[in-house]
Amino acid sequence: MNTEKLHYVFKFPRTRHLFDAGGNSVSRDDLVLSKKECEAFLKNQKLIIEEKVDGANIGISIRKDLSIAIQNRSHYVFSNTHKQFNVIDSWIDKHSKTLHSILEPERHILFGEWLYAKHSIHYKYLSDYFMAFDIYDQINKVFLSVEERNNLLENTEIPHVRKLAEGINFDTVKIMDMLDSKSSYYDGYVEGLVIRKPIEERMVERDYFTNRVKIVRPDFMQAIEEQWTKQKFTKNQLSYY
């Protein structure tokens, strides 16, 4: 990876809560839909519900010189940036051919969760330390649809987040019930849900999504940096270990 000074970083937009599920699910700075907005989001809408996983949000892109850049929120990271990124350079080397085949230089950013380190959940059955959830087109300023994302990742070794349900006529009761879904990645419940409309989303002068929301289990402790970094460092586990 090229370690020369990197410039503008596209910051991943915020995801609003569909509603406050109670407990520790919403922090002071989180955005939450109003009751009217919640009802409008769910009413007569086809929705895709995916498992929300608990790690570090990273974006992977190809630069003009064909080197690969990794961003975490608003800055670039390398293996020596923090212990949780120890193996990220070797991961990039391993998947370089695939990344160059699916990402157009200076155009696409592959966003996903980097799950090498335990934050609040100790995952034990991961297929990979990276789990993709979005692809952003910087030229057209649009996040690809779930179908487009899946098509790009199809026949590659890079996994994407698990779909739990798809359909219409979801309401808040059904959504709360789905928070009791068993996670695919450890012996416990999902951390939360990401609920998306199956369409592209164009980003226009705002820092949050309008075509997707999230909901977090009431008993989930928000994994902010000040909390998990004070814990003993624990690696999550791959399923074949």
What does this entry look like structurally?
There is one protein chain. With 241 residues, this protein is of the alpha+beta class. It is 17% helix and 22% strand. The radius of gyration is 18 Å and the shape is globular. The protein starts with 34 loop residues before the first helix and ends in a 13-residue tail after the last helix.
List keywords for this structure.
alpha+beta, 7-stranded antiparallel beta sheet, 4-stranded antiparallel beta sheet, 5 helices, 17% helix
List the total number of helices.
5
In whole angstroms, the N-to-C terminal distance is 28 Å
Strand content: 15-25%
List how many beta strands DSSP finds: 11
Main beta sheet: 7 strands, antiparallel
Shape: globular
Class per helix and strand makeup: alpha+beta
Topology summary:
Blueprint: H1 35-42, E1 47-52, E2 56-62, E3 68-72, E4 75-76, H2 88-102, E5 108-114, E6 130-137, E7 142-143, H3 146-153, E8 163-167, H4 172-178, E9 192-196, E10 201-202, E11 212-216, H5 225-228
Antiparallel strand pairs: 1-8, 1-9, 2-3, 2-5, 3-4, 5-6, 6-7, 7-10, 9-11
